[in-house]
Amino acid sequence: ISGLVAVHVQEGAIKQQDFEAFLEHDLLPMMNPWPASNSVVVMENAPIHHNDHIEDLCEARGV
């Protein structure tokens, strides 16, 4: 890991649609397909990190 790839600061609680928008528009465009650099996304077990759309976005990008 060599620094941040993308960051989003939001006041208050973050909703699933906010996270999906960050992932789709800010983070994934900066990612590369596996096994290139910047090809691994690490998420905690928060409920907003788990749905089919997020999985589809990551799979489409190859991460």
TrEMBL record:
InterPro entries for this protein: RNaseH_sf, Tc1-like_DDE_dom
Species: Cronartium quercuum f. sp. fusiforme G11
Pfam families registered for this protein in UniProt: DDE_3 (PF13358)
Domain Tc1-like transposase DDE: residue ranges: 5-60
GO MF, one example: nucleic acid binding
Domain of life the protein comes from: Eukaryota
Protein's name according to its UniProt entry: Tc1-like transposase DDE domain-containing protein
